[in-house]
UniProtKB/TrEMBL annotation:
Pfam families: HSP20. This is Hsp20/alpha crystallin family protein. It comes from Candidatus Fimiplasma intestinipullorum. Belongs to the small heat shock protein (HSP20) family. Gene3D superfamilies: 2.60.40.790. Residues 24-131 form the SHSP domain. PROSITE patterns: SHSP.
């Protein structure tokens, strides 16, 4: 008969449980983002599955672009008589901030959202017109 250390068993079980977004609040699975450098601009490619376009907000303040999104879902299962046998709800808001530069303005930032994917571009350098 082989014995396993009890603390290892509980450690693994609880590590898995606390890795879930409910406990972590800022999970690595939320708002996964690829940042790439293109010719003259940067591209943020962000995964937002289950989020509607109207639930995405972007704010630019002190050179930081903050992208926030909220998601609400309600899953309800009923039996043949119409009685609820299971109902789960989820509501959450999450955000990420990126330094884009003090010279970048809202007019410099372009964004598109399609099929759960948010793409945001902003220039590497902002050209100023001398007065």
């Amino acid at each position: 008969m082989k014995f396993y250390p009890v603390d290892r068993f509980f450690s693994d079980a609880f590590d898995d449980m606390f890795d879930r977004p409910f406990f972590t609040g800022n999970s690595s699975h939320v708002m996964r983002t690829d940042i790439s450098e293109k010719d003259g601009y940067y591209l943020l490619d962000m995964e937002l599955p289950g989020v509607k376009k109207e639930d995405i907000h972007m704010d630019l303040e002190n050179g930081y672009l903050t992208v926030s999104a909220s998601r609400n879902s309600n899953n309800e299962e009923k039996d043949q008589k119409g009685n609820v046998i299971r109902q789960e709800r989820y509501a959450g808001t999450f955000s990420r901030s990126f330094y884009v530069g003090d010279e970048v303005t809202e007019q410099d930032i372009k964004a598109s959202f399609d099929n759960g994917e948010l793409k945001v571009t902003f220039p590497k350098e902002v050209k100023t017109i001398p007065e």
